[in-house]
Design a protein that fits this description.
Length: 292
């Protein structure tokens, strides 16, 4: 299974504090219509830390049912407890997810040996492919290049990494260290173009919640050799890519979706609504790009 292409890091819509499955299904339909290769429920953008285990399973089940085999479903199942991550990943497998995305254990700050054993334990407990997720800005640790290479060598189902460390050089280092079949996805919309140039194969995108067709076409353009088209799209959308992170993700993307009438802008504490000044800044960008 290849993970090349565009995967949307889905928001989890809320309505009066509860999961809004109707808005979620409608969002997934727009993703599929827009040509994404896959969707990623209950990741960082999906506010997984504030979902109960029951809600976590319900969101994955809703995503699998809505996708109905028309695109891949990569379920977020990471935890800073290995036992919990195993349980969540086994649950996602039973619910029909095509793969699992597992963020590095946060707060504990394990050694690289601990990280290796964490991921190996999960890989040994399930049969679905596993996508590593390195985002040191949120987790406080990085999945080291040597650890990624070791996992790729020792665990046949660990086949991809979502790289959110902000370093193009690290993508080059990974590309040199891992087998050719092991794939690298950008975890930052603003870095997708340079990551593709350095050997990445796609993106797990926040912006594609709003612009699935544009992001899918952008990545496809690069992969099909239409490099100038990809560069022009990157330059055109760069302002949006940055403004979607002027406050903690997914607060800005949910506000943007609410402006389009897609869903409520609701987030769960400790996240809160955007400041008025940042709302105006994002609205201005959306208007300038003719998204509103």
């Amino acid at each position: 299974m290849s993970f090349a292409g565009t995967y949307t890091a889905l928001v989890t819509p809320f309505k009066n504090g509860a999961f809004d499955p109707e808005a979620f299904r409608a969002l997934i339909e727009t993703q599929i219509s827009g040509g994404v290769e896959g969707i990623v429920p209950v990741g960082t953008t999906g506010e997984s830390p504030t979902l109960t285990h029951t809600e976590h399973s319900a969101v994955i089940q809703a995503a699998v049912e809505a996708a109905n085999g028309r695109c891949k479903v990569i379920a977020g199942t990471g935890s800073n407890s290995t036992a919990e991550a195993v349980s969540l990943t086994q649950d996602a497998e039973k619910l029909g997810a095509d793969a699992a995305l597992l963020v590095a254990p946060y707060y504990n700050k394990p050694s690289q040996e601990g990280l290796y054993r964490h991921y190996r334990s999960i890989a040994e407990a399930v049969r679905i492919p596993i996508v590593l997720y390195s985002i040191p800005g949120r987790c406080g640790i990085e999945i080291g290049v040597e650890t990624v290479a070791r996992l790729a060598r020792d665990c046949p189902t660990i086949v991809c990494i979502k790289e959110s460390g902000g370093s193009v050089e690290r993508v080059s280092q990974l590309r040199q260290a891992v087998p050719k079949a092991f794939e690298i996805l950008s975890g930052d919309d603003s870095l997708t173009l340079p990551f593709l140039a350095a050997g990445g194969v796609g993106v797990i995108s926040v912006a594609s919640n709003l612009l699935p067709q544009e992001i899918s076409t952008f990545v496809r353009a690069w992969r099909e050799g239409r490099t100038q088209e990809a560069v022009e799209t990157h330059q055109h959308l760069y302002r949006l890519f940055k403004d979607l992170f002027i406050e903690p993700n997914p607060v800005p993307i949910k506000y943007a979706l609410s402006l389009k009438g897609v869903m409520s802008a609701e987030v769960r504490l400790p996240l809160c609504e955007m400041s008025d000044s940042n709302k105006e800044k994002l609205r201005s960008t959306l208007t300038a790009l003719k998204i509103l």
